[in-house]
Amino acid sequence: MEDSPSIRDRFRFKRATAGCGDGNSNGAASKASSRGRPRLHNHGAGRLSRKSIHLSVPCLKGKSLLYGLILTVVIVYTVASVVMQSSIAASVWRKGERRWRGGKGLREGLRLGSGLRFVTQKRFLDEGGGLDRARRDGRVGVRPPRMALILGNMKINSHSLMLFTVVNNLRKLGYVFTIHTIEAGEAHSIWKNVATQILFLTPETNRQVDWSIFEGVIVDSIEAKEAVSSLMQEPFCSVPLIWIIHEDTLAKRLWHYEAMGWTYLLSHWRGALSRADVVIFSDFSLPLLHSALDTGNFLVIPGSPAEVWSTEQYIKTHSKYQVREDNGIPREDLVVVIIGSSFSYNGLSLDHAMAMHSIGPLLLKYARKGDGGSCKFAFLGGNSTDEYNHALQDVASHLGLAPGSVRHFGMNVDVSSVLIMADIVVYGPYQDEQGFPPLLIRAMTLGIPIIVPDTEIMRKYVVDGVHAMYFSKHDPKALMSVFSLLVSNGELSESAMKVASSGKLLAKDILALECVTTYAQLLENVLDFPSDITLPSSISLLQQLTWEWEAFGNPKNEDGIEKLDQKDDFPTRASIVYILEEELTDDAGPKNITENHRRIVKDFPTRQDWEILQQMEEIEEYKKVEMEELEERMEKDLESWNDIYRNARKSEKLSFEANERDEGELERTGQPVCVYEIYGVTGAWPFLHHGSLYRGLSLTTKARRLRSDDVDAATRLNFLNETYYQELLCEVGGMFSLAHKIDEIHMRPWIGFQSWRAAGRKVSLSSRAESVLEQVVNEETVGDVLYFWARLDMDGGVSKSSDVLTFWSMCDMLNGGSCRDSFELAFRKMYDLPSQIDALPPMPEDGGYWSTSHCWVMPTPSFLEFMMFTRMFVDSLDSFYPNASAVNGCLLGSSKVEKRHCYCRVLELLVNVWAYHSARKMVYLDPRTGILMEQHPLELRRGFMWPKYFDFTLLKSMDEELAESADDGDFPRDPWLWPMTGEVHWQGIYEREREERYRVKMDKKRKTKEKLYDRMKHGYKQKSLGG
User: Fold this and answer.
1) CA-CA 20 to 30 A from 431: which of 14, 38, 362, 703?
2) At how many degrees (to 10) do helices 476-486 and 494-507 cross?
3) In the structure, what pLDDT confidence band is assigned to residue 966 with cuts at 50, 70 and 90?
4) 3-state secondary structure of 755
């Protein structure tokens, strides 16, 4: 069987714009590539023949002769290196191309010297993120931003350390985290320090989490894919999702999916990753490996303690001189490791050639035969192959280097074992890196002085002469000068020791600050911060950050420690990647694939298949109707009474099954109250209740539960079929539909409502509270009472402000600071009040509870009166926001979600204003214990209520005036919301209907008289048979 390619060869490349050809055709690209290769040798020297060289040498004397020989040697080994690397790369490409679409994909569009770069989307990390202005405005919230963190496991490893550091610092900025985990682990006690709650996710509980209560969700592993599936359906598909992928399990399988033609698996994973607003990788190689799944949401946030963690664990079990002895290197030798690129692509053919060109003087000085052979040079990069090593030794032999003085190690070996042997590490790849190289962090952790090129990425992280030594790129003299500062008499100098020591201290937390601040900046740009949220503190407060090493300590269990160089290929739990492969492919599976790579694709119906199926059903229905009509016209023998009786019984049975009522409907018979649970999406089904007390109220026809008697609001009021009005009114739209001709649906003395979100937010009624509610509505026969069980401050935290929260201040916080102004404007227009009269109903500051989330019960007549008031209030409010869905069309919210649901938060609190000022008794029912507590007693409201504005007679007259205008076609604006929200009825309509009935009655009498008169005059005439 052919060996699997290295993981660093298994990705679809994105080439940088600079230095890349057009790639019009293979031949043209090859010629262009050969013409575009940089020449590393002198043009004049390249044209010299052997004879000319031989004749010119005797003419040189003294130093000129020495310099000429050195120049000639450098030219020879440089040319040989380029040829060697090109031949090796060509052989690698020939092997790799057969694995990718018959030889296409990897080399196409790439040429010698071209590079690969991952381009980050700038929109993810825009400075400020819109919060700077909100901070300047001094917005005060009532609760901190809530975040959900989904962990694939709770193991103690480097990734957990990184994530814990990020979460702990985000918590300091003001975020609150709830952790959901797939598996338990040793780090459970550590995570408890940064989470308000830790919950375990199972396939059963996965659908019972209300993700909409969080401002965002962070998923830290590819193994948490099932949790992401629950976020892909409404109403959770709009919750911002950040998916961190640190594993390469999926990347290792992508090349196999393409080779086998498993396009559905690729589409499945591409669809799952596209759900995330941002997919985060910690290394620039991982997005390239997953490039087949990129939909424009990939982002790299560099920074991980993985290299330090792995190196420190490696030091505990390995010794520098023992590793040297295993590799045949004497302990007294000076070992220099030259790090190249970690990728195997065309640009790599120049990496070691350019490195050898830069260190040429070093090789000639320290690795020549007869010079003692006390210095060894090791190249680390690419993949290690026998042909590559043999070619490298041939070049070293031609240059006159001592045997074994130059060696090559690939990235597919234990890189820590190579670095631990080094006395000095030189970083010299041909291509510039996008991030600080992880191998340099390992070298610095080992206490090895490093020599790096003077590039922008190096200047960003290390200081010349302190943490590392700089040299000018492609300048052998500069490298020779720097090297001489680190080596003295064949040993490391005192300067080298200082550089190594300071570099080791820096490496421990080199990228911690950048990692944490980038995550904080990302959250500010991706999340929506509603009006009631306390904004997180400024990122500038994060200074001098380090990884949380103290929290994790030194793990005693070595088996639980992550070893990046020796991955566990046999995990205790099967990866979700392999589980999906088994589920989404045929029984043949990846184990029984033949050599011809036959395609195994699941047969899923396409749109064309559904259209064909629909046509077949229509043809069958047409034929069925045609046959029934033909049977009716054909003569039939008279059936016996037994056959007629049997057919009648069969018809009754079928009719009963078709109209059989839901079990809950049968249980509700005789109940005094019914609580309607309002929902608008299928994702809310797991949160709905069953039983005699509840009945569903679906805002859309598509979301209605199957095999249930849920009320379909959209069929009762047509305007709810428009998404704009559904989102604008939320649960109140369902109430309008139920109040419209309520006798057809609800015929009980009490009516109640509860949002589907109540169950997810743990404020739904317990069985004990349900019993108390049913008991009190049976006993309560005098007066109007409003029972509610979701109080206003239950979902929020404690405000950071010292001011006492009032009803209107809370309403302002929930509605972008415009609740009072909008309510006053709507109330003034509704009652046509002059400007000098106060139009904001006063609400007491007695510390009592207020209702929210539409969780209440009241008498049915009171509900109809409340709906009458609400319809007029919403219509008045709508006159000020004719296009609430526009960017600046709604002032009752700050985030996009709030603007889309413009009126919802005001309407949640409207029942409190109506109940308080209409002198209704307000009672809070504890949803857990069932304890009843009266709020805002009637005797304390005297002098504060405005009962005249909430009098039923006044409201009825106002309702009739609006109905008259609607009946006459006198619309104040177009569209006019009020006529769409319910019945349009006034006295004129009643009189017109009575006149119409009287006219029909008199017309019937007239026709009867005319018929009798005609019979008396002409007599009764019988029609002739057959006439």
Assistant:
1) 362
2) 100
3) confident
4) strand
